[in-house]
Amino acid sequence: MINITFPDGSVRPFEEGVTGYEIAKSISPRLAAEVLAIEVKDAADTTADKGTVIDLTRPITADSSIRLLKFEDEEGKKVFWHSSSHLMAEALESLYPGVKFGIGPAIENGFYYDVDLAGQPFSDADLAKVEKKMLELAKEKQEFKRISVSKQDALEYFTKKGDPYKCELINELEDGTITYYENGQFTDLCRGPHLPNTELIKAVKLTAIAGAYWRGDENRQQLTRIYGITFPKKSMLDEYLVLLEEAKKRDHRKLGKEMELFTFSPKVGLGLPLWLPRGAVMRYQLENFLRKKLNESGYLPVVTPHIGSKQLYVTSGHYAKYGKDSFQPIHTPQEGEEYMLKPMNCPHHCEIYRSAPRSYRDLPLRLAEFGTVYRYEQSGELHGLTRVRSFTQDDAHMFVRPEQLKDEFKKVIDLIMYVFSVFKFDNFTAQISLRDKVNREKYIGSEENWEKAESAIIESAAEKGLKTVIEYGEAAFYGPKLDFMVKDAIGRKWQLGTIQVDYNLPERFQLEYTDADGSKKRPIMIHRAPFGSIERFTAVLLEHTAGHFPLWLAPDQVKVLPVSEKYADYAKKVCDLLNNSEIRASMDDRNETLGKRIREISLLRVPLLVIVGEQEQAQGTLSIRKDGVNQGSKTVEEFVDWFKETVKAELS
Q: What CATH number was assigned to the domain covering residues 75-247?
């Protein structure tokens, strides 16, 4: 017999070799019908933080803690969507003989499979045909069967099948670790886990087609990436499709164009955003909003160049870690002299720290910069403002003494909480990103310093009462992080804001301060960016608000519209008075109907419309609409007072 511990702490004995399905069935037949997979953690394993997700049909042979996974669990969704990618592959193989397969993982919302259709045409019009075939196959209640196979047999199978992508993957695997999964007539190289059978998949929607280079290498074959999503109930798909339509309306690329905020030019280069006048005004407001808080908190502004000596990034460790993925070095006429586009601001800030002797009295030293950095993203990965090659970080680095570390870290948490409250990001989780428990080779620095840094983050988050999750393997190469994962107005998850503790860069740059006893000590470095980057934050904010920015942030806060040319002079007078009161106002007196002007201005998401005609001119008043809703009439003075109070409330 073995002991199985449930999430509530209760323990029950079962026969050795019991399966997840049998455990679920012993609780209730209904539960057994809803469970998709099981997470199992061997009681003897004291190193693992989480268990391993396995098929419901695999035997459990030792005392273990378990968690039965349903569709509402994140891990359950991953299993469901991974199995759905296999079902789609089976449908494709049936409809397009000779198709070759790359990889087909579950993703945050659904799944994709990269396929080589061997020249066979495929377009959006073909998706419905594949969906229909998937549902036909799902109804067959095909079991997902796990089969261990030798490396030689696996290579022989996929060579005979003519699937070079699978053969390439197999060549990189160790013999004795290779498994297939079979469902129906389809066999795939796969670790699993998978659903018990295909009948659980009740609703299918293939959502998009894109190009994707094999293994992300632009010099390799371009494959067709087919995206999809599935659900155990049709009603869940219907709800998702409504959400998808709302997401399309909120797409920041669409809104950015309508609101005239930013654009891209192939002549300038892929992934290099151009901020238009309205976008630049909005961007300046964001920067000034944060600068005000930084001034209040004792940050010192610095400015660093857009390039740096290659040796700077060799010293910091960035070149060894990211050099091959960065823009290539810039060679000057001076032989052997190499520069790089700046991928990070922190090495520059380390050199600013080094530029003068530092005493313990100087710390904490807080250096802040809106610094533009450059990262080479492959063209297929670029996406609006969320994945670009040039972006501006709201970056700061604090150099602190050990006894100051936690207090300073908690002050940064307070700053991020303030930013989130102003922008109404109320639903968020703080992710504590730590080292991989096994693979430590990708990190720099001593074990002792890493343990100190990780403890400081965990303790600070706990003391601030944050709702946290721990993710191993997500730390930066030089230190652990606290990443803030927010959910927007329609429930999508975004990473915004990060704080990192770093013992390693001060070591690599030999940073010192003189302590009270005259000895030389090494400062600790905190990296922080509440927005993450201006570009990404703008994209997320656009989609969160559907373009309806807070009044203080809107590029055009007020549009003044005379109902006809007769009232243009009064409209201009009103406009000038508002601008003199530091309200961003402009006039639209085009020779168009009032209705047409209002409709066109609505695309710009101008929050306030001031309409003036005969009555307003005669009485010295304004007719006001806010976000399309009539707010009545006010004098200019009353309007300015109301405006200022509204902005004050938004920023409180």
A: 3.30.980.10
Gyration radius of the chain's alpha carbons: 29
* Apex 618 CA angle, 612 and 621, nearest 5: 50
Known catalytic membership, residue 375? yes
Task: Report CA-CA distances (Å) from 631 to 557, 624, 649.
Answer: 15, 5, 18
Given the residues 375, 544, 597, 605, the one annotated as active site: 375
Q: What is the pLDDT of residues 2-33, one digit of tens each?
A: 999 999 999 999 999 999 999 999 999 999 99
pLDDT tens for 336-370 read 899 999 999 999 999 999 999 999 999 999 999 99
The model's pTM is: 0.84
- Candidate list 55, 126, 395, 588, residue with the active-site label: 395
Closest among 165, 207, 208, 210 to 380, alpha carbons compared: 210
Domain 297-545 class?
A: alpha beta
Indicate the domain borders of the chain: 2-70, 75-247, 297-545, 558-651
Select which of 166, 205, 318, 397 is catalytic: 397
- Could you report the per-residue pLDDT of 304-331, keeping only the tens digit for each? 999 999 999 999 988 887 777 778 889 9
3-state helix, strand, coil in the chain (%, to 5): 40, 30, 35
Q: Catalytic annotation on 481?
A: yes
List the catalytic residue out of 55, 225, 278, 346. Answer: 346
Residue appearing with tokens 């004291």:
46
Q: How far apart are CA 358 and CA 512, in angstroms?
A: 7
Work out the pLDDT band at 47, boundaries 50, 70, 90.
Answer: low
Omega before 343 cis (within 30°)? no
Distance between CA 479 and CA 482 in Å, rounded?
Answer: 10
**Residue 395 annotated as catalytic:** yes
Residue 554 has pLDDT above 90, yes or no: yes
- CB of 439 closer than 8 Å to CB of 487: no
Q: Enter the DSSP assignment of 40.
A: E
| Alpha-carbon gap, residue 165 to 102, rounded angstroms | 5
397 is catalytic: yes
The correct CATH number of 558-651 out of 3.40.50.20, 3.40.50.720, 3.40.50.800, 1.10.246.40 is 3.40.50.800
Q: C-alpha angle with apex 515: 512 to 520, nearest 5 degrees?
A: 40
Burial 451-469 (b: 16+ CB within 10 A, else e): eebbebbbebbeeeebebe
- What φ, ψ does residue 429 adopt, rounded to 5°? -130, 140
Mean pLDDT of 507-525: 96
Active-site annotation holder among 278, 283, 393, 557: 393
From the list 366, 481, 544, 605, the catalytic residue is 481
The β-bridge partners of 397 are 367, 527
Query: Under CATH, which architecture does the 2-70 domain have?
Result: Roll (3.10)
Q: What is the DSSP string of 70-88?
A: -TTSHHHHHHHHHHHHHHH
| Catalytic one of 77, 342, 521, 527 | 527
Closest CA to 88 of 119, 114, 53, 69: 114
